[in-house]
Amino acid sequence: MSTTIFETLESDVRSYCRHWPAVFESARGCRQYAEDGQVYLDFFSGAGALNYGHNDPDLKRELIAHLSADGIVHSLDTYTSAKRRFLETFERLVLRPRGLDYKVQFPGPTGTNSVEAALKVARLATGRREIVHFTDAFHGMTLGALAATGNATKRAGAGVPLPFTITAPYDGYLDDPDAALTWLGRAWEDSSSGLDVPAAVIVETVQGEGGLRAARAAWLQGLERLCRQHGVLLIVDDVQAGCGRTGTFFSFEEAGIRPDVVCLSKSISGYGLPMALTLFRPELDVWEPGQHNGTFRGHNPAFVTATAALEKYWSDGTFAEEVRQRGRELEEELGRIAALVEGAVRRGRGLLTGVWFPDPGLAGRIAGAAFERHLLVETSGPKDEVLKVMPPLNISRADLLEGTQVLLDAVRAVLGEEDAVARPVPLRQAPAAHTARLKSSA
User: Fold this and answer.
1) Of 41, 205, 288, 356, which is the most exposed, with the fewest CB atoms less than 10 Å away?
2) Residue 146, exposed/middle/buried by CB under 10 A (0-12, 13-18, 19+)?
3) What does pLDDT average to over the chain?
4) What one GO molecular function would you report for this record (predicted)?
5) Statement: the pTM of the whole predicted model exceeds 0.85
């Protein structure tokens, strides 16, 4: 599996491939197949862009049918039948059952596009400019989103000052769990605090890149009350934690809050196709026509697969309950792993769960040992001290337990409790095209 072209021609900014030096060729469900015939169990899920695994057959069928019929692919914001079907389905299966009255904006293809639109519309609607964000937050790589991001390395990549944001302690960051809300409330009430009342607060209910800290429901409820009291808009960034990853379609449902603005991307297309939404209350729709636009905000193949995903997985509560069950099982298995290391703590919620280790280098070594055993997991947190586990939401119990057993083997190997010989996961059934290529090259 030659990697020369990537290493000589592609920018040094590449990162995941440095930890996973395999050349992947095909994938199905929770497995990826490399050029050399090796199989990898995928507990990464495209950083959350593949909540339903790779190449879901029902979504693939709809996508192929659309393309085979010469369906519209690129449309900017013109009307298309594929967009109509998505909006009708999204309203029927997601918004209406939850009593949510949101306008839908297609801001561009990625999560950072969704966040940029949210920040801009909040500033336009309120006439204020400051945005409150939280310690360890991650909201994207464009300048507005970076200004609301905590990671020093990512912020440094901007090359310019990142103004008009205020950092507050996230839930659990300080010993006093309510300190952040107390401080914000007092500062907003005191005209001499030096802290202007902001346009909005942006928050992740689970900090995916920031170390899997999960905010308590009571804390989120308190934050919502505080925002309402002071006329501050509440933005929930659900780019990674949304679309079912925590067991409900929106990650904030469990807390019973109703954000003013919601950011969605990653798995909203259901297939890994670029797509993002910014949702907001109708009275916040203060845009002038064309005031925020983007060439690829009308990606019709993504509308097609998004519609198919909603109809397949979210037509009733069955799938959500299955996700919650898998989440409980994952939390239990990762709790066993945390118990092997003194001071380690399980973090996260549902199928966005991991283990925080007191030794910052331990998570990376375990992820490396997992790759040797053909399991894909990543790390997160300011020092990459959290082992982050994100299997597909529709993973079977057998595959989930197989992966967590591989992870347990990797942990024990790193701790020196067993020989670090790789025991790859079984091949199972590879996609037909991949199998045929291997046979022809044999």
Assistant:
1) 288
2) buried
3) 94
4) diaminobutyrate-2-oxoglutarate transaminase activity
5) yes
